[in-house]
Amino acid sequence: MRTPSNEAVATFSPPAAQEGSGEGLSASDDLGNIPSSSPSRQREGDEPIRSCILTRDRDVRSNLVRLALSPDGQVLPDVRAKAPGRGAWIGVTAAELQTALAKGRLKGALSRAFKGASFVIDPDLPAKIAAALERNALDRLGLEARGGTLLTGSERIEGAARSGQLHGLYHAADASADGAGKLAQAWRVGRDEEGSGRKGLTLPVPRAILSMALGRENVVHIGVTDRAAAGRVGDALDRWLHFIGTKILPLPCDTASQGASAPGVSPVTVGRELNEEYE
């Protein structure tokens, strides 16, 4: 398979969050990530392939982050890859990007990608990308909530889990271990997978942030009841967590759920299989 050249960019206009419907499990327009070394991060099908300008590693573009130029020459994240003109793609973590920025490698790579166009790199670019990916992931949760594919409230989630209707389980960073563990156990029972280690993912945001994203009160746990929605949500979260370097630890199955480390602390460890397998 050939490696398409990075696309060209001139102007930038921040895209609005798009409604997701009918997207398949293995592809979504602007979602998706696990570390590039993981086979599960690779996608099959017709999705375009791009090269990271820093590592030259090739991957489908939904696993990468696009950078675009604003009209005044600022390098900005274009996480939904909607801005027109020439673009540059990166697949590294925030820590790796910060190192490349400090050593001048990012400037050189962007000069080649932007074909000599004048540009300015904000020293806070890694933080801006992280914020954009977080917003994209939370927007996805909000869209799915409005589409009726998410459940909140422990009792409702537990009922869906025990009846085998749950395809994804997420917890706020300040969720209690007991509450998360109870829901994880109900999920394993409903899937007839006791002892499998399956559990939800603890997200690096508190309940107040999740509540605002979903437009609901006191969102501590989130259950996804639609398989395609679980794919879309998982993809958006994976790309965000990969970039910020959140470590997802597989804990023994009788404990609560994976813990999320502080952003940028350690390289990501794939934990999505503990949440939902994507057949």
What does this 3D model show about the protein?
This protein has helices spanning 94-102, 105-113, 125-146, 154-162, 177-190, 207-214, 227-244; strands at residues 8-9, 49-51, 58-60, 65-69, 75-78, 85-90, 150-152, 168-171, 201-202, 221-224. The chain is of the alpha+beta class and 279 residues long. A hairpin with a 6-residue loop joins strand 2 (49-51) and strand 3. Helix 1 (94-102) packs antiparallel against helix 3. The longest helix is centred in the middle third of the chain and has 22 residues, at 125-146. Mean pLDDT is 78; it is low at 1-44 and 248-274.
Briefly summarize what is shown.
This protein has 279 residues and is an alpha+beta fold. It contains seven helices and ten strands.
Q: Topology of this protein?
A:
Elements: E1 8-9, E2 49-51, E3 58-60, E4 65-69, E5 75-78, E6 85-90, H1 94-102, H2 105-113, H3 125-146, E7 150-152, H4 154-162, E8 168-171, H5 177-190, E9 201-202, H6 207-214, E10 221-224, H7 227-244
Parallel strand pairs: 8-9
Antiparallel strand pairs: 1-6, 2-3, 4-5, 4-6, 7-10, 8-10
Helix content: 25-40%
Sequence of secondary-structure elements: EEEEEEHHHEHEHEHEH
Counted beta strands: 10
Order of strands in the sheet with most strands: 1-6-4-5
Proportion of strand residues: 5-15%
Low-confidence stretches: 1-44, 248-274
Counted by DSSP, the helix tally is 7
End-to-end separation in angstroms reads 24 Å
Which structural class do the helices and strands define? alpha+beta
The radius of gyration is: 19 Å
Main beta sheet strand tally, sense and closure: 4 strands, antiparallel
Shape: elongated
Mean of residue pLDDT values: 78
